[in-house]
């Protein structure tokens, strides 16, 4: 299925990395609001449709996930493992975007079901090129249908809701 308006969920604990990625994606022509989660627990709440994230008009299921690995609390590895255990989320494209080039991290990510592994570029022009390539790929790609239901794998319970101080997930656009 060709998706006219793809949704990207960026999961990264670094505020600077999130801001830079938003800027380079916008400059590359990505016009959809970039969905952002500041850590693994927020990503799971978003993807699971917990609390306010149950409003799929405001918080749509992503077409593509850009997932950092090394985050406090729930790591990107834990998020990826959780995603691949959820029947409604198994088809989501999960692209690791990490500063780690360690082969054991790369192998583990693919073993857990990552679709690709990208090392965060150190230079702004390289990050811009990555964003341009990603936007071009999004425009040309075909994506599977995702179900917006609230199914979970039988052996998995839904993650707990976020604290009452409100979500840090931000919608930019």
Give keywords.
173 residues, 5 helices, disordered C terminus, alpha/beta, Rossmann fold, 33% helix, globular, 6-stranded mixed sheet
Kindly describe this structure:
It is a single chain. The radius of gyration is 15 Å and the shape is globular. The protein has helices spanning 15-27, 40-48, 76-84, 103-111, 124-140, and strands spanning 8-11, 34-37, 64-67, 93-98, 116-119, 170-172. α1 (15-27) packs across α5 (124-140) and α2 packs parallel to α3 (76-84). A six-stranded mixed sheet has the order 5-4-3-1-2-6. It is built from five helices and six strands, in the order βαβαβαβαβαβ. α4 links the parallel β4 (93-98) and β5 (116-119). It has 173 residues and is an alpha/beta fold. The longest helix has 17 residues, at 124-140. It has a single domain, classed as Rossmann fold (3-Layer(aba) Sandwich), CATH 3.40.50.2300.
Q: What order do the helices and strands come in, and which of them pair?
A:
Blueprint: E1 8-11, H1 15-27, E2 34-37, H2 40-48, E3 64-67, H3 76-84, E4 93-98, H4 103-111, E5 116-119, H5 124-140, E6 170-172
Parallel strand pairs: 1-2, 1-3, 3-4, 4-5
Antiparallel strand pairs: 2-6
Helix pairs in contact: 1-5, 2-3
